[in-house]
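Sample entry follows:

_____
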Amino acid sequence: MAAADPAPALVALDNAIAQIDLLISRLTASSTSSADVPVAAQPKAAVAGSNGEKKTSGKAKPAKPAVPASGGENVDNFDKCDIRVARVQAVEVHPVVAGLRKFVPQAELQGRLVCAVCNLKPAKLAGQPSEAMMLAGSHPAAEAEGGEIVKLIDPPQDAAVGDRVCIQGRPASAAPVKQLSSKVWEKVAGLLRVQGGAATFDGQALVTGAGGGITVQGLVDGSEIH
């Protein structure tokens, strides 16, 4: 399911393409640069003089930005993703591109807060640019239209456009990869599930950087998120 990158782009889903205003400045996407990180006060480096006395060089090395400890391969893969809160700005009917239209009414998409993967490789769907992917949960249901029930992932209503999505208890990665490979995303998506009405990764709740939980309404436990 497609949404837009930091600039408005089309969300190509069933006869509906949602242009999402991510309002994500890549200043936030690249997160903390070395210029943003305060340099910790450090003692001047000591250098021995010709008379054996210690002198100071007057130069101090800048502190390196803190990098969260590795949480294993699964968490490291998740940290490569740039998942953010986005807002659907516009929905347009498209005669070819398939996706959400039969599951989510156009009026429900318009202006809605969603969660989008923003660093997937840009692609074209039926000639339409797709630069991000809107996340939704689903599970099979013979009685439902299309044979499955699909629900969008909901950020907290007080979330801001551009807020990063991270694993609860772990800060968002300071440096997600610029372009996420499809193989890494497949591994990540394979561990995204609905549990107790919440979006989880490998059994851990997903939240925004501000701490609000990511929810999924109307799906049974174990439903996939993709």
Remarks:
- Residues 1-50 have pLDDT under 50 and may be disordered.
- Residues 182-189 form the longest helix (8 residues).
- The first strand starts at residue 2 and ends at 3.
